[in-house]
């Protein structure tokens, strides 16, 4: 037994309980998000129509709010579903895709974070800084290299994540080459994953879809978030290990879903590269 065995336990709890997650997500990646949730042991439902979303979210345990492809209807649906989810005590994830790239994205993400009891805020460092009101160099929906979490700035980045978590009252996950997951008191670095994951549209969206299942299944939100981040990263490593000479990002996408599908709590506990950050 190690202090990080909770990552495997969290996955086992997901598979035992099959949490139903309502995803109001990026229509570029919605199919992959649904398949990733099914692969990890959860169950997806997608609805962004305001008249439907609030009722649908009542039957779910988790809610994924992803602003990747915003429109007036989806924004209204996010607020409607989020209000109900908050009233019912459901777990809410906010993925502020592209925050900082436009006023609409930044303002929408900030309003959702301010108005809803978000459980987990997940994005790259540029997006997280934009939502936090800090200086950021957002480049479309991708993190600018200037905002990357590195070994050189790991302690400083962890302090920022903890500070934001305390201010926002939620867990914060900053994902990139080195992932950071923090609440107000603790921070973890997760070093799983491969660069090729950035060559497949939607790996971040898939993480945001599966993470609410972990939040629903596992009582500790910080541990659940660490487990979800590690599971996605490890799946990427396993998928990369299957790549042949003629394989490209299309094959990698399929192998990634296969890796999620075949992952067990034991495999995750053995392969998760997690460390505490002072």
How does this model look, in words?
- The chain has a nine-stranded mixed beta sheet with strand order 2-1-3-4-5-6-7-8-9, with helices on both faces.
- 57% of the residues are buried.
- β6 and β7 form a beta hairpin.
- The chain is of the alpha/beta class and 278 residues long.
- It is built from eleven helices and nine strands.
- It has one domain: Ribokinase (UDP-N-acetylmuramoyl-L-alanine:D-glutamate ligase).
- The two termini are 22 Å apart.
- The longest helix has 21 residues.
- Helices cover 51% and strands 14% of the residues.
- α9 packs across α10.
CATH topology name, in short, is UDP-N-acetylmuramoyl-L-alanine:D-glutamate ligase
C-alpha-based Rg, rounded: 17 Å
Which range does the strand content fall in?
5-15%
**End-to-end Cα distance:** 22 Å
Secondary structure class reads alpha/beta
Side by side, the strands of the main sheet go 2-1-3-4-5-6-7-8-9
Question: Looking at the structure, what is the overall shape?
Answer: globular
Task: Give the second-level CATH assignment, the architecture.
Answer: 3-Layer(aba) Sandwich
**CATH H-level superfamily:** Ribokinase
Summarize the structure.
With 278 residues, the chain is of the alpha/beta class. The protein has helices at residues 6-17, 30-40, 50-58, 72-88, 103-115, 125-132, 154-168, 203-217, 221-241, 249-262, 265-271; strands spanning 20-24, 43-46, 62-66, 91-95, 120-123, 171-174, 179-182, 187-190, 274-276.
Please write out the topology.
Blueprint: H1 6-17, E1 20-24, H2 30-40, E2 43-46, H3 50-58, E3 62-66, H4 72-88, E4 91-95, H5 103-115, E5 120-123, H6 125-132, H7 154-168, E6 171-174, E7 179-182, E8 187-190, H8 203-217, H9 221-241, H10 249-262, H11 265-271, E9 274-276
Parallel strand pairs: 1-2, 1-3, 3-4, 4-5, 5-6
Antiparallel strand pairs: 6-7, 7-8, 8-9
Helix pairs in contact: 1-8, 1-9, 1-11, 2-8, 2-10, 3-4, 5-6, 8-9, 9-10
